[in-house]
Amino acid sequence: MTSEKKSLHLDIELENAEEPRDYTKLVWLGVIALFVVLGTILYLYSGANPQVSTVRLRHILVKFDEKDPAQRAQALTRIREIRKRILDGEDFGKLARDNSNDPGSASKGGDLGYVTKGMLAQAIDDYIWTAPIGQLSEIIHTQFGFHVVVVDDRQLSKVDELAEQQRAASPQNAADGAANP
């Protein structure tokens, strides 16, 4: 190849070659776009999904076979004794550790942690959303056995809080309050 041909060949190769790209700008644009998208998702998610109402509770479970009346009677006697001991001042946690048949919560003093609506048996669920904080329940019968329950805390979502306020301010409640001073 002559030098002219070599020069021409190099010129053609240089024209066809792409210039090196600086990908730093593209990477930063991608990072910024990612933050914008994530921020938007978080903003929309927090607005569409307000805090969920939760209740923290402890319970003691005494299991029995529903088909065995004698076992049911023994379980009922046992849960009544446990409830009386709690009312007489014995420590709920210690009694739960020693007497509860719930393997998941007995070792934690009966603590079930925070639960949401519908997580527990219907009878317990009905009780925990209206029960006074710290008050020992009556005996509650579910498909799992007999329970005594204490609600330790209740965190209502904004929606449930507003519904509760509206219930309290309803005309029926006002009339009941006037009739029963």
Structure description:
The protein is of the alpha+beta class and 181 residues long. It has a domain at 54-159: Chitinase A, domain 3. 51% of the residues lie in helices and 15% in strands. A four-stranded antiparallel β-sheet has the order 2-1-4-3, sandwiched between helices. The chain starts with a helix and ends with a helix. The relative contact order is 0.13. Mean pLDDT is 82; it is low at 177-181.
Question: Could you provide a short overview of the structure?
Answer:
With 181 residues, the protein is an alpha+beta fold. It has helices at residues 3-16, 24-48, 69-87, 92-99, 122-128, 158-168, 171-179; strands at residues 54-62, 111-115, 140-142, 145-155.
Keywords:
single chain, Chitinase A, domain 3, 181 residues, alpha+beta, four-stranded antiparallel sheet, elongated
Helix content: 40-55%
Which CATH class of the domain at 54-159 is shown? Alpha Beta
Walk across the major sheet and give the strand order.
2-1-4-3
H/E order of the elements? HHEHHEHEEHH
Strand content: 15-25%
| Mean pLDDT score | 82
Using only CA atoms, what is the Rg? Answer: 33 Å
What distance lies between the first and last C-alpha atoms, to the nearest angstrom? 114 Å
CATH topology of the domain at 54-159: Chitinase A, domain 3
The structural class is alpha+beta
Largest sheet: 4 strands, antiparallel
Got a strand count?
4
The helix count comes to 7
Tell me which CATH architecture of the domain at 54-159 applies here.
Answer: Roll
The low-pLDDT segments are: 177-181
Shape: elongated
